[in-house]
Design a protein that fits this description.
Layout: E1 2-9, H1 38-46, E2 54-56, E3 59-64, H2 68-75, E4 83-88, H3 94-109, E5 113-118, E6 122-123, H4 126-141, E7 145-150, E8 161-165, E9 174-180, H5 185-194, E10 197-207, H6 208-218, H7 220-231, E11 234-236, E12 239-241, H8 244-247, H9 255-258, E13 270-275, E14 279-280, H10 285-291, E15 300-302, E16 305-308, E17 314-317, E18 322-325, E19 330-334, E20 339-343, H11 350-360, E21 370-373, E22 376-384, E23 387-394, E24 402-404, E25 408-416, E26 419-423, E27 426-430, E28 435-438, E29 444-447, E30 454-462, E31 471-474
Parallel strand pairs: 1-2, 1-3, 1-5, 3-4, 4-12, 7-13, 15-17, 16-18, 17-19
Antiparallel strand pairs: 5-10, 6-14, 7-10, 8-9, 8-10, 9-13, 11-12, 19-20, 21-22, 22-23, 23-30, 24-31, 25-28, 25-30, 26-27, 26-29
Helix pairs in contact: 3-6, 3-7, 6-7
Length: 483
């Protein structure tokens, strides 16, 4: 029986899919088609591998502080939900992230096979993917690092490439001769016509011991510094946290640069197994169009849309009707606070807009108008000088922290469900159409003890209405600073 440990690397911001993907809610958590997000699909695919000769252990997810509650929230909706979540204190790229997972698996399960995947990819043919993984598991069992190389169908310049060599091995894998950077259009065509190159998918299978051995050989500094941070880790509810100070000393490097590209010709065996399963990393809006279900004119639509005399265009509506007429080859994306219009063939250039947003420190870079929290969400409906209006949803059994504000007062009106409100020393229950006033500086808490979602309208008034004007005293989600 082969034992495998799924590892999902859940970092990154997906900035080329702005404005839908943002730093606070990146693309891996978006449901770009259907009900599930790419992260949820990745988890489900890896946990469907069990069989007579494969035992699938719990998933190890490596993510960051900002996305920890998004991960937990989306895990609740998938089966099986059991997973281990490791929080990186700060991003140090993928090599340290994978090393954290390998250390966790080694301690808990010994030398099982890590099946490593990014969280933001699309696989159309899941049966073909599963067959390829079972072959790759066999190859990894022998001690080889196995990379899944996507069989190219066009001269793509946006991906790295892997060159294979020699004859097909026992499990369908080939020895890797070299890795190649993103090529020019002419070189990409040469790669395609040669039949010797595949796209680098970023997915690999490797025994935990083999990864740690390879990292020690090629980047002993990363191996040592990650181990130091891991040894000083602590458990925080659902999360494992490596030591922050020690992790800040970890060198930044990717899996490819730190290990993979150094393996060919070394004592660390590396091979590639071709994957032909309708793979895409959805790196830009043009890739979303490529992967989408098209109408007879080549259009891909999502949400409330109305289209006439339009071809080869992607239209994504989030909040309202988007009507399009007489255009072609466009990307049109509408959210509550942003509308993007771009040439589909130049959709990679959305990163230029993201850079401008960053330079000007605009809030649309990081957060949507609707912001998800571990207890539910809030939607900032309107604001001006000295007032802000929010719609707030609290999930059943959830509560906000016991808190106060230094610069604002709040007025809550219940519009759905039943609210349990703490205001100073008084605890009261409010039903629909009832309200309460929270004076400036008063300790307060909002709870939903019912079985249905609670919704309120919050009106804030005061001299400063920023989200950082919160002093927390108690919190169910570990957000009270340690004394």
């Amino acid at each position: 029986m082969k034992r495998v440990s799924p590892v999902i690397l859940c970092g990154g911001s997906g900035s080329r899919l702005w404005p839908l993907s943002r730093a606070g809610f990146p693309k891996q958590f978006l449901a770009l088609s259907g009900e599930r997000s790419m992260f949820q699909h990745a988890h489900a695919r890896l946990n469907s591998l069990g069989g007579k000769d494969v035992e699938t252990l719990e998933t190890v997810i490596v993510t960051n502080e900002d996305h920890r509650f998004l991960v937990l929230d989306q895990l609740r909706d998938v089966e099986p939900p059991k997973a281990i979540v490791i929080l990186e204190p700060e991003s140090r790229n993928t090599a340290p992230a994978l090393t954290l997972a390998a250390l966790q698996v080694s301690e808990r399960h010994g030398d099982s096979i890590l099946i490593v995947t990014p969280s933001d990819q699309v696989i159309k043919d899941e049966e073909a993917y599963s067959r390829a993984l079972h072959k790759a598991i066999g190859a990894a069992e022998s001690g080889c690092i196995v990379v899944l190389g996507v069989v190219p169908d066009k001269p793509e310049t946006g991906y790295g490439y892997i060159k294979r060599t020699g004859e097909e091995k026992l499990h369908g894998e080939f020895v890797v001769e070299a890795f190649a950077e993103k090529p020019s259009a002419q070189l990409a065509m040469t790669y395609l016509l040669s039949g010797e190159y595949c796209w680098n998918s970023g997915m690999l299978l490797v025994k935990a011991s083999v990864w740690l051995q390879a990292l020690e050989k090629f980047r002993s500094d990363i191996a040592l510094s990650v181990k130091n941070a891991w040894l000083a880790r602590y458990q925080d509810g659902s999360f494992i946290r490596p030591d922050k100070a020690a992790f800040s000393l970890v060198p930044i490097d990717s899996i490819d640069y730190a290990v993979m590209e150094r393996c060919p010709g070394s004592s660390i065996p590396i091979c590639m197994l071709p994957l032909d399963a309708g793979w895409s990393d959805l790196g830009a809006w043009d890739a979303v169009w490529e992967a989408g279900v098209k109408d007879e004119c080549g259009n891909v639509t999502q949400g409330d849309t109305l289209i006439a005399d339009t071809a080869n265009t992607i239209v994504h509506a989030t909040n309202r009707l988007v009507a399009v007429v007489g255009v072609q080859n466009l990307v049109i994306v509408e959210t509550a606070d942003v509308v993007l219009v771009a040439d589909r063939h130049n959709s990679q250039q959305v990163k230029l807009l993201v850079n401008k947003l960053e330079e000007s420190k605009r809030p649309e870079l990081a957060l949507h108008r609707k912001v998800h929290r571990p207890w539910g969400w809030y939607d900032s409906i309107d604001e001006s000088d000295r007032f802000k209006v929010k719609r707030i949803m609290v999930k059943p059994g959830a509560s906000l922290s016991l808190q106060k504000h230094q610069h604002r007062a709040e007025h809550w009106i219940v519009v759905k469900g039943t609210a349990t409100v703490t205001c100073g020393e008084r605890v009261s229950e409010l039903n629909e159409n009832q309200s309460v006033y929270i004076p400036l500086g008063e300790k307060h808490r909002l709870e939903n003890l019912g079985a249905d979602n609670l919704e309120i309208i919050e009106v804030q008034t005061g001299s400063y209405l920023g989200e950082d004007d919160i002093v927390r005293f108690e919190d169910a989600y570990g957000r009270v600073p340690k004394s």
